Every structure is written in structure tokens, then in C-alpha cells.
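Q: What does the assembled structure look like for these inputs?
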Amino acid sequence: MNKMNKATKRRLIITGIVCLVLWVASYFIGYYVVADLSLDIQTGDISLASFTDIMNATALYVTPVLFVLQLIFTVIYTVCCYAKAKKLYASWDGEDEDTVEKSESLISGCIAVLSVAQIISMLFFGVIVYATYDKFMSEFVFWAFMLLAVLFIGEALYITFMQRCAVQLTKKINPEKQGEVLDIKFAKDWEASMDEAQKAITFECGYRAYKVCIYTCMVLWLVCLFGIYFGMGIMPMLMVSVVWLTTTLTYIVKSYNMEHRKGRK
Amino acid sequence: MPLYNKLKDFRARLGVNQQEMGALVGTSRQTISQIERGDYSPSVTLALKIAKVCGVCVEDIFDYREED
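A:
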């Protein structure tokens, strides 16, 4: 009974949060659309073009700040994690499980932040390119863009360097692990050096990621469908469909081959 | 998980740490640690390898008990 109550409470809280998020999102979208429509009604031309302008202005002024903030956070967090992991490993006597597990947990945290930062920085940089590409006549915008481009390349190099450091430390802790981050065959070598337990974890995580990816594609498809009314065109929908198709076909082909003993290890 | 084991005791008898035990049975230190904690049930092959290295039967190390 208690469990049921707890589960119901949890569901209610989640539903409440979802409603709150949707309410806030609806407020802002509705505000911009209505503001835009009223403006256009005055001129007699009903269109939603200025909604895109508002988004562009937000992208132009907010994204560079967010980009720099995420860069600072990534560098500070990963350097701290790596330094602490290295220190713990140096103090490890080869027996104490807690020490080595803490060290490995910090390395995992470091790699997770680097992976997320890579995607976030690419997204932000893309938004910055979108917001500035037709404003290069302004000297300020041009030099600001050049600075952000240098920071973007710098962050990409830093992420590769830090990922290599984290992998090297993991290899020191677990000497059976193989693979060099800078090598194009890294993923293959790393997978080949995994044992059965690590493969089980990796493949389960891969399946969860596949399921989440499929749900995300469904939601994005809906967003793209509504986006057509906001002048997004069909390109976003095409991109979502490519990701959706690639993921689904890869899964279907691999599972078919494995069920029929083709390429099964 | 209803699979219990005495791997830690047998490893202590052999006088090896998890890293060395892993090397003896061809697996990683992390997997040995997960088996000892009961977080991972090894495959039949790995269980047989562990038993062989310890010089006992699989049932001496691993014990399956139905949960209530």
C-alpha cells in the first residue's frame, strides 16, 4: 500500500512538473506569437516571421555567453576530476577497492562531461554561425565570431587531449584495456579488450540509448511538423528522419544477422 | 540476484589481489570485483575458469539459492 502511495505520489509530482514546464513554454510561445500577430494585424499583414527574428536575436546575444560559460565549466570540472582521480590512483595500493572505484568514478564523470560538452559546444557554435552569417559587415560581429571560432577549435582540441588523458589513466588502472584515442580504430580496439561483464554493461547501455533515441525522434518529428507553421521548412524533418532511419535500420539489420548467426560473436 | 559466491575467500586462499585474479582467469579486475559483490553473475565459461584456477568445483564457489 505504501509502495503504491509512493509510486502515485511520484507520478503526480512528475505530471505536475511536466504541466509546469508545458505551461511556461506555452506562455512564452503564446506571448511571442500573439505579440507578433497583433503587430502584423496593425499593418494588415498576418504572418509569423518576427517570431523567428526574436529567436535569432536571442541566439545572437545569449548563445555566445552560454558557449563561453559551458567552456569554462567544462575545463574547470574536468581538470579537477582528472587531477583528483590521478591523485587517488597514485595512492592506491592495489588492494583497496574504495580508492580505485572512486578514481574510476571520477574518470567516468570527466569523460561524461567531455562528451556532453562536445555536443553542446557544437550546437552552440552552429547557432552562433546561424545568428551571425549575414552580419559580417559589422566589424564587431566579425571579430566576435572569429574569437568564438578560435574558442570552439580550442575546446575541441582540449576535449580530445583530456579524453586521451582519461583513457590513458583508465589503461593504467586496468592494464588489459587496449586502444589509443587518436587512432581511428580506437572504438574497435577498446571493445576487443572488454571482457564479458563490461560488454554486457556496454550493450545494455547501447540498447537503452537506442530506445531513448527512437522516442526522441518521435517527439522531434512532431516538433518539426508544428515547426512548418513557423517557417522551419522540411529540412529539420528530413534530418530527424535520417537519424531515425539510420538507427532503426542498424538495429534491425544487426539483430537479424545475429538471430541468423551471421556475424555473431 | 539469487547467486551467492565465496570468491573473495578463495582469492584470499590463493593470496592474489583482484587484478592478479583477473589476469589468472582472463578477465578484468572490475569484473572480479563485481562478482565478489554479487553485482554480476559470470558466464558458465568464466565460472569454470575461476573454479579451475581455485582448484575446486564450481559449486564450491558459487551457490544458487531461490529467493523467497
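The helical segments of chain A are 2-43, 49-90, 97-132, 139-173, 186-192, 196-227, 235-259.
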